[in-house]
Write a structure and sequence with these properties.
Blueprint lengths: L1 H26 L6 E15 L2 E15 L8 H14 L3 H13 L3 H17 L4 H18 L9 H29 L1 E10 L4 H5 L6 E5 L2 E2 L7 H7 L5 E2 L1 E5 L2 E4 L3 E2 L1 E3 L2 E3 L2 E8 L3 H28 L9 H14 L1 H19 L7 H14 L5 H30 L3
Antiparallel strand pairs: 1-2, 3-12, 4-5, 4-7, 6-9, 7-8, 10-11
Length: 408
């Protein structure tokens, strides 16, 4: 049951991400053509005001189709009508005018030629797969030639539509964390105990000390794991604690955390109590917590580049496993994990790599600066590189998850 709830939670986060794109696209008059709960092929669907709404058969999040993400090219015709041309070679004569018009960027002529080509395809004796591929390809190109196509829009509209997805995940994360703080969270009030012979003891940490900063970075004591997390990311590098002792701020001796069960620790335990917060303070704490997690995520991504943060990557398998375990611990822990995953989806999608949202935003900014569109070939090369990098992260994460499941 907990695994099912974890999968539903992940699917919901992806769905609201796509809903963000959808709502803002409608608001800026860039009418989406489809909006699905789950991915096509459709189990059920209905067209309302020119938009196809449906429930897909692949239960993973949601799907929104925005018209004309790229300027249409002659190669699009070749790709979608290849099978139809093989079955009905005479279609080449009808395809060529539209192909030429797209190559020469005579878009109005291309629209008229595409109508003639569609009529010819309807008359041709084609197999069902060939006909379906041809009609889908023609529809995509016609959408790309429409006045509300994405590539035709000014940069601010394109950026607004693309940024809306990550922004929705970000807003959801803050809202959920605010609810968690309002419900009640464990607050680390002071050091409960210090293990003898550990780095904490060597540093001079004492029971009753209140930890204020790690390596000069102030820590919020709202969540008990905040201090251990700051210590853990030092990964054995020098760490200095700043504490409040008898009302005075004291900086302790610099020590190095030791690895224990794969986690770097100093050797102390925090005393905690449950505390609830007023709505205004809950939102403020949620924003602070979101920023702290964002900083930690940026640091982790930097370590992946240098090769030292490989083990911190997780795939959807690990995400589902972690959130299902959190649900077994308690609903409040599950909510916090859900907020963390939502924030991670936002940050991942904002990486400046195509086909991620951040890549589209980066290209829109560059096009606005250049004053003209980036060539289609450049988009395709950047997308191939981005897909390769994202797949690499996925493979690393899946490898880590398999090792964790096997106890490695």
């Amino acid at each position: 049951m907990s695994i099912a709830a974890a999968i539903v939670g992940l699917a919901f986060l992806i769905l609201i991400h796509e809903a963000g794109h959808f709502v803002v696209a409608l608001a800026v008059r860039m009418r989406p053509r489809r909006f699905y709960l789950f991915f096509p092929p459709a189990l059920v669907k209905r067209v309302h005001k020119g938009i196809e709404y449906g429930i897909g058969s692949i239960p993973l999040g949601g799907y929104v189709k925005i018209p004309g993400m790229h300027r249409p090219a002659a190669g699009d015709l070749d790709a979608s009508l290849g099978r139809a041309r093989a079955e009905a070679p005479w279609l080449d004569r009808r395809l060529e005018p539209a192909r030429r018009a797209l190559e020469e960027e005579r878009l109005r002529d291309a629209q008229a030629d595409l109508r003639d080509l569609r009529e010819a395809v309807a008359r041709a004796e084609l197999s069902e797969p060939a006909l379906r591929s041809a009609e889908r390809g023609l529809t995509d190109i016609e959408d790309a030639l429409a006045p509300d196509a994405y590539w035709r829009a000014p940069a601010w509209k394109k950026i607004a539509v693309i940024f809306a997805g990550p922004a929705t995940n970000l807003a959801f994360a803050i809202a959920v964390l605010a609810v968690v703080f309002a419900i009640g969270v464990p607050v680390a009030t002071s050091v409960e105990s210090v293990d003898p012979g550990t780095p904490a003891a060597e540093a001079g940490l004492e029971p009753g000390d209140e930890i204020l900063a790690v390596n000069g970075d102030e820590v919020t004591p709202v969540l008990t794991e905040r201090v251990p997390a700051r210590i853990g990311v030092t990964r054995g590098e020098p760490v200095t604690l700043t504490v409040r002792r008898d009302g005075e701020r004291v900086e302790l001796a610099t020590v190095r955390a030791r690895e224990q069960d794969g986690v770097y620790r100093l050797g102390f335990a925090l005393r905690a109590r449950e505390e609830t917060f007023e709505p205004g303070e809950s939102v403020s704490l949620a924003i602070r917590e979101t920023w702290a997690i964002t900083e930690a995520t940026g640091s982790a991504l930097g370590r992946i580049v240098t090769g030292s943060g490989r083990e911190e990557v997780a795939s959807p398998v690990g995400i589902v496993q972690g959130s299902s375990q959190a649900l077994e611990v308690g609903f409040d822990v599950y909510l916090r994990i859900l907020a963390l995953i939502s924030l991670s989806l936002a940050l991942l999608n904002l990486l400046p790599l195509l086909p991620l949202d951040g890549g589209h935003i980066a290209f829109s900014i560059v096009e606005a600066i250049r004053g003209k569109a980036i060539p289609r070939a450049a988009y395709e090369r950047a997308s191939a590189l981005g897909i390769a990098l994202v797949l690499m992260l996925f493979v690393i994460g899946l490898s880590n998850d398999v090792n964790r499941l096997n106890g490695g």
